[in-house]
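Our preliminary data section would be incomplete without showing what the modeling component actually yields. Below, a chain of 239 amino acids is followed by its predicted structure, encoded as tokens that our downstream tools consume directly.
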Amino acid sequence: MDPNHSEKFAIHEAAREGKTAVVESLLNANPKLASLKDDDERLPIHWAAAYNRLPIVELLASRKNFDPDVTDSSGWTPLMIAASLKNAEGDAIIELLLRKDADVNMKSSTGQNALHFATSKGNISTVRTLLANKCSARVKDKRGQLPLHRAAAIGSVPLMKILLEEGKSPVNATDNDGLTALHHAIAEGHGDAAIFLMKAGAELDKRDNEGRYAIELAPDKKVRSYIIQTAEREGIELP
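Predicted structure:
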């Protein structure tokens, strides 16, 4: 590695490591460092968000000409990065970015918005905040997936409930493979999530691009029989 590399990107490293005083003194010496892109086209703000360094995000966001929607090489904004932290740890950063008028509906280069990322990580409070700030649950990414597809794939009933009720997500939308949220829930072995979707109006006779009903994607007999028996008890007739 170029010996000047770490010196050149010292502010990025300080942002990652949570060294607020170092970031501050580097900026005081050269304010332009706030908009210096590293090899991943990330600014210090991206790294501060990725490592959940709230004081550094606050410091960077308080500077004049701060752009909350700046993207890295994958088209990720600081808001998307914060939304994808585990255990909803990025919520405080998200609140701060929203106060700075961050655009909740920006899409990454793969067509995902912050809601896709928050849903994938099972971040319920983050999803609620994003929806309350008009982040759309009806946007498909480049694979044709809605956040609901993600929630179904991880088997999160609370998230699916929020996306359907608060996000007005369509329940029967298909992705590029013709898979509905129900297909995803069953394929990943999430019986309770599948039953929830059936009760929420999932079309049971929808086939994917290979002509398969959702129930045919059950990974094993145990999951399949659990879903069939529970559906019967609920008065739901499978194809």
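The mean pLDDT is 96. The CA atoms of residues 61 and 67 lie 8 Å apart. Preliminary results of this kind motivate Aim 1 of the renewal.
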